[in-house]
Amino acid sequence: MKNSFKALSLLLCSFVLLNCKKEEKSPSYYKGEMTILTDESFKSVTEALADGYMISYPDAKIKVVTKKEDLGFIDLLNDKARVAVMSRDLSPEEIKTYEEHVELKFLPAKFAADAVIFIVPKESAKESISMDEIKKGMMSEAKPFIFDGANSSNLNFVAQKLKKQPKDLQFSVIPGNRNIIEELNKYPDKIGVIGLNTFSRPYDKLSEELRDKVKILPVQSGKTSYLPDSEGLRKMKYPFTRVLYFLTNEGNFNIANGFIRYSCTQLGQMIVQKEGLQPYNLYRREVQMR
Description:
The protein is α/β, with parallel strands linked by helices and 290 residues long. The protein is built from eleven helices and 13 strands. The strands form two sheets. Strands 1, 2, 3, 4, 6, 7, 8, 9, 12 and 13 form a ten-stranded mixed beta sheet that branches. Strands 5-10-11 form a three-stranded mixed beta sheet.
């Protein structure tokens, strides 16, 4: 009888331990670890959203890794991360590759409007730039535009806007958006091309210091000039407005899709707004007065 009781007890303990281990390992949207790949140009907003998610769900651990946009997309396909942040439109071939590798429908989760901006030193006499200047400059051997490198989101987006391949364009390189700002005064005849999110945070001390070193050139399209301000982004009048979106290779509702949903809800969109970018999903604010 005692042996039967011991055997039953051991069986029950084993069953409980097995279920505990399964529960510990079972994936969930509010716990676990994952990596997000983001281009440096929109690293700030990605980190802010990741921090917000981890505050809401302390058992979730999110690592934000900086990687050039094209390389981040490739790593996502190779299952080296759960989420990648993108800004350019994928080609039909890339969409097909994504769907075949990930075995998911291509459904970009759009969460913010950002911009590629053109900057000059504060002392520069230049006050604006036209679309025609940009087109000609990107084909000139003088290489008047400084980008943060090949495979970057900024170069990809400008190339796409001009209906060109990045390899066909002429440009100079200083690695890193922040480095372009810091070193631009050494090249008074050049124009820096960076992502707005580099210094878009309105009350951040570092962002203020970086903004004070340069001026943003309005882009002239036709007879009108546009700035990457809230109206220019919201109505997408600024010619180089770009929409940031998430791609994931997670097929169920675990931490990656939990994070994406959070970023697109009102709380996540408030974080986007605090970053100085335009929220993609607008929520009506209702006030009841009695």
